[in-house]
Structures are given as C-alpha cells and as structure tokens.
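hey so i finally got around to running the thing on that chain from the lab meeting. sorry it took forever, my laptop kept dying and i had to restart like 3 times. anyway pasting the input first so we r on the same page abt which one it is
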Amino acid sequence: MRASSLARQGLRPARFLLGLLSLCLIAVLPKVQAQEEFDSYRLRLEGFWLYSMPSGTFQGSADSGTVNLTQDLHFDSYSTFAGKLDWKFTHKNHFYVVAIPFNSSKEVVLSRTIVFQGQTFETGLTVHGNLDSTMYGFGYQYDIIRRRRGHLGLAVQFNAFDGHASISAAAQVIGSSGVQQQAVSASGSLLAPLPLAGPEFRLYLTNSPRVYVEGNVYGMYFFGYGNYVSSYGLLGFSVNRHVSLNAGYALSSRLIVNRDTSTNRIGINMTQKGPLVGVEFSF
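ok and heres what got predicted. didnt touch it at all, straight out
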C-alpha cells in the first residue's frame, strides 16, 4: 500500500509537467503555423493606381438612341485608383471592403446627331460629356485551400454601382449656314445593386515569401437586368513582411445594365480596363 501511494505521488510531478507542456504547445502551435505560411496577416490594406481605358455605351431612360463613349464623346484613357481593406479574422475567413471610382469627361464636336433623355444634340454641336461612376463593395471570403506557399479562396461580394451621365451644350451657332442652337442639357442616374461571387488566389513562386502571382474572377448574371464581371492578375514582390509592391493588368469591370423605361432606369454597357501598379501593407 505504501509503495502504491509513493508511486502515485511520484506521478503527480510528471502529470503536472505533461499538462504544462501541453499548454505550451497549444500556445505555440498557432504561431508556428502562422510563421510557416508566407501569406500570414491579420489586416491588409491595398492601394492601386489604375490607368483605365473606358469603352461602351449608355442609353437614356426616355425614348433615345445609344451614345457611344469613344466614338461620340471621345472619352480617353485616364488615371484612377482602387482600394481594398481586408480583415482576416480567422485562419481562413475574411471580411473586406473595396472602392473604385471611374470618372470621365470630355468636350467634343459631335460628328452625328444623338438623342439622350429626350434631348437632341445636333451634328456639329460642341458638347460637354460627363460620366461619373463609383463602385463600392463589401464581401466575405473563405479560403478553401491555405498552405505555406499560398491560398485559394471563394468570395461572395455585394457591390453598389453609383453612376451619373450627362451631356450639355451652351447656346451656339453651328454649321456653315449659321444655325442658332439654344442651350440644351440632359442627365440620368443609375444606382444598381450587384451581388457577385468567384475565386481568388495567391501563389508564391519561390521557397521564400518574395515573389508571388495573384488574381481573381468575380461575376454574376442578372437575367433580364444585366450582368457584371471583374478580374485582375498581378505579379508581386515582397519588400519585407509588412510591405509588398505589385503590378499587373485589370479588367476592372464590365457592367451591363439594360434600360427600363417603366422604372426610368437608364441603360449602360461599360468596360473599364488597363494596367495597374500598387502597394500593400500587411499586419
């Protein structure tokens, strides 16, 4: 009996040490796992400069024809920016917000007569065309695969497209015959909710967290309402564990919203694309 009691007393320090070691392992393992993953962070802020090349058309909600952004209004390429804030609140789960403004304006002499929102703009008239459109979005992403050299995730995102198009002309004399043209203007707005879904990935190309490729494809078909798709691909270089530089090409958005005269909704078919350069901060 005494020997058994002594044996039990001798096991107590061993059990205590084993329990203490287990607690230490529980505390250390998540840190080891995070260190093993090159793409380890809790909060990430990304900013991009985008050289956008717009194209497409828009239609007024009233009885009107189609206005072409490049052929009629001669919209040129321009610089804009995009931003994303990503909170990875667990090992595989993210919440994020994004914003991309697209704003174009141009003064041009019309080479053909166009009609927008019931207003007629004659050939030879000097007009000012303007298109302001901003895309706001927030989403949730789950990383289906997350390994040491990258991840593959699936995102569900809700975008709000806020667009405003206008054409205006001051009173002027047009044509060789000196026809007097009164001042005329027309405008239309579109606020469109756009739910999206699609894959996103990052893959490190070396055995160190130095060079990586990244991309995504998001989209949705809205049946009679329209459709939307966006995508980008880039090559990144990690300066250190907190800062990375990247560059690539983006089909920032291809948005089609069909005109609906019953709801006074204008129609738009617009593509924004071009090269991008950015920097990201990870913590």
